[in-house]
Design brief:
Elements: E1 4-9, H1 15-24, E2 28-34, H2 38-48, E3 52-54, H3 57-61, E4 68-71, H4 78-87, E5 91-94, H5 102-114, E6 119-121, H6 129-139, E7 146-154, H7 167-170, H8 174-177, H9 179-189, E8 195-203, E9 236-243, E10 248-254, E11 262-269, E12 272-277, E13 281-286, E14 289-293, H10 305-319, H11 328-347, E15 351-352
Parallel strand pairs: 1-2, 1-4, 2-3, 4-5, 5-6, 7-10
Antiparallel strand pairs: 7-11, 8-9, 8-15, 9-10, 11-12, 12-13, 13-14
Helix pairs in contact: 1-10, 4-5, 5-11, 9-11
The structure holds nicotinamide-adenine-dinucleotide.
Domain Gfo/Idh/MocA-like oxidoreductase N-terminal: 4-123
Domain Gfo/Idh/MocA-like oxidoreductase C-terminal: 135-351
Protein name: Gfo/Idh/MocA family oxidoreductase
Length: 353
């Protein structure tokens, strides 16, 4: 099969990564774009040379020339658009989180099972070279049995505002937005064990911090500091996730807190351990000697090359040339974990899955 004809639905901040990757890929023709904002759709089409411009995703999906779509809209629209795309026979790369709620995730997973088309969830951290290298070491058995993982993504001022700040539109705050990446990368490196139970707490203590001056942050396309969210998302979340194989993960994340920003991902096995972020390092022992291994890579940190790798993997899977890398059931599993953390926080109890 030759290059696929691709459309991108939702043309806000993250769509650049998809548009750049498709434009530059020999395996794709970027033919269509769609956004409910007609001005944004027109300017993105001109910028990227897309010949078809839509403001209604249903019209894009009805176009028989389009083989595959990226869905880069806000979280609460993912389920509806993914299911419609799969039913139209289009291959789908959907931005994370797969959906904003557990009910939607179950519906998407069922639609993916009914469809012959590929559904890939944009767990982009899996495609960063540092993660790909670490996975090779793990798969070769160099770390042994992984029994503990620890991930932190704390932002002092990180709420992107707009729909991200409103639980009804986003499904939650840093837990669903950042947590989905960081819980997923640990879960994937651990070999995707089944989840046994979850305990978690989310805090609403500080708010979105739109008052902070002279400090740049990622902002949603509909950011408006004068419009407070109807149902504000949490500032900070922390959780302990236990797996049926006995392994445990500890995780915390924030949009707002008083402290220094921190991003750290660590996994611990009985033969070796590793830090994936901020930069890849592997820790082990040999001949009664402690060893720190620093792989020599273009970038030992998370690299934006990951977005291109993610898109190439999606195109290869859609062509039938590669195995699925982040399928719907992995999207569903993360939404199950995140929903259980919110439930545990609400009830004050451990949630057994
Ligand atoms: N992988 C990552 O690193 C990463 C980073 C940021 C955001 N994201 C995810 O990407 C998605 C989009 O985030 P963003 O930051 O680009 O948001 P954004 O607010 O910047 O852009 C969303 C765009 O979607 C458009 N839109 C909304 N509803 C639509 C519809 N029904 N049809 C067509 N267009 C529609 C909006 O007009 C807007 O242009 C979210 O799910 C977010 O979680 C992923």
């Amino acid at each position: 099969m030759g290059a696929l004809n691709v459309g991108v639905i939702g043309l806000g901040t993250i769509s650049d990564m998809h548009l750049d990757a498709y434009r530059d890929s020999p395996s794709a023709h970027l033919v269509a774009v769609c956004d409910i904002d007609a001005v944004r759709a027109g300017s993105r089409a001109a910028e990227y040379g897309a010949v078809k411009v839509f403001t209604d995703y249903k019209e894009l999906l009805a176009d028989p020339e389009i083989d595959a779509v990226s869905i880069c809209t806000r979280n609460d629209t993912h389920a509806e658009i993914v299911i419609a795309a799969l039913e139209a026979g289009k291959h789908v790369l959907v931005e994370k989180p797969m959906t904003a709620s557990l009910g939607e995730a179950l519906a998407v997973a069922a639609a993916a099972q009914r469809s012959a088309a590929v559904l890939q969830v944009a767990y982009v951290r899996r495609f960063s070279p540092n993660a790909e290298v670490l996975k090779r070491f793990i798969d070769a058995g160099d770390l042994g049995q992984i029994y503990y993982a620890k991930a932190t993504c704390l932002r002092r001022v990180g709420n992107p505002g707009g729909w991200f700040a409103d639980k009804a539109l986003s499904g939650g705050g840093p837990l669903i937005d950042l947590g989905v990446h960081f819980i997923d990368i640990c879960w994937w490196l651990m070999g995707c064990p089944s989840v046994a139970s979850v305990s978690g707490t989310v805090f609403h203590k500080i708010g979105a911090r739109n008052n902070i001056l002279n400090f740049s942050r990622y902002l949603s396309a509909d950011f408006d500091p004068a419009r407070p969210p109807a149902d504000p998302v949490e500032d900070l979340a922390t959780a302990l996730i236990k797996f049926s194989n006995g392994a445990v993960m500890h995780f915390d994340t924030s949009y707002s807190m008083h402290g220094a920003d921190e991003t750290k991902v660590q996994i611990f096995g009985d033969k070796g351990g590793a830090q994936l972020e901020p930069a890849l390092e592997i820790f082990t022992e040999q001949h009664d000697t402690l060893l720190d291994i620093s792989p020599v890579l273009d970038s030992p940190t998370f690299s934006t090359v990951a977005y291109r790798n993610e898109v190439e993997q999606f195109l290869a899977t859609a062509r039938g040339d590669a195995a699925e890398a982040a399928p719907a059931d992995h999207g569903l599993e993360l939404i199950k974990i995140i929903s259980a953390i919110y439930e545990s926080s609400r009830t004050g109890r451990e949630v057994v899955l």
